[in-house]
Amino acid sequence: xxxxxxxxxxxxxxxxxxxxxxxxxxxxxxxxxxxxxxxxxxxxxxxxxxxxxxxxxxxxxxxxxxxxxxxxxxxxxxxxxxxxxxxxxxxxxxxxxxxxxxxxxxxxxxxxxxxxxxxxxxxxxxxxxxxxxxxxxxxxxxxxxxxxxx
Length: 150
Description:
By secondary structure, the chain is α+β, with helices and mostly antiparallel strands. The protein has one domain (22-145). Helix content is 26%, strand content 9%. The protein is built from 4 helices and 4 strands, in the order H-E-E-H-E-E-H-H. It has helices at residues 22-35, 82-89, 111-116, 135-145, and strands at 58-62, 77-81, 94-95, 101-102. The strands form 2 sheets. A two-stranded antiparallel ribbon has the order 1-2. The longest helix has 14 residues, at 22-35. The radius of gyration is 17 Å and the shape is globular. The chain starts with 21 loop residues before the first helix and ends in a 5-residue tail after the last helix.
């Protein structure tokens, strides 16, 4: 029987160099904002860089959410303004493998979201190819979060 109070846990050992800390998450968040040039990937709106820990208008949103096994890597996030972040997280907007915006439920968007969520528009992604959203993550989002089968 497993003893949940066992100080040795399940025998897992932390991997050297992979310490999870709030500093690592903040660094990842700030890196994502920087490579997206403080620009919303959907609307294209650019915002001033913010000196606070969390940006007031931009969010770093997972494409394939971590709770569903998504990786914590730059090819699995989009930088989105708050309203678009909500629409993306709810699957009201998604994107094709070549970053074209898909709006499967335009009627579910509010007026501000509809103004920026133009179907067919290409997402504003980082210029460096290795930092761009990966097709496998976008596929997961389309099929699981947005439930869009094309």
